[in-house]
Amino acid sequence: MHFFFDLLNDAPLGTKFWTLLQMAFTIWMAVDAYQRRVEFFWYWVIVLFQPIGPWIYFFAVKMPTIRWRGFQSGPAWQRKLSVDELRYRVERTPTVANRLALAERLMDKDEHAEAIPYLEAILAIESDYGIALHSLAECRLATGAAEEAVAPLDKLIRRDYRWSNYRAWRTLIRVHEARGQPADALQTCREFEKRLPTLENKCLLANHLVANGNASEAGALLDRALEDLHYAPFRERLRHYRWAREARRIRARLDKMVGSQLDGR
Question: What pTM was estimated for this model as a whole?
Answer without folding.
Answer: 0.72
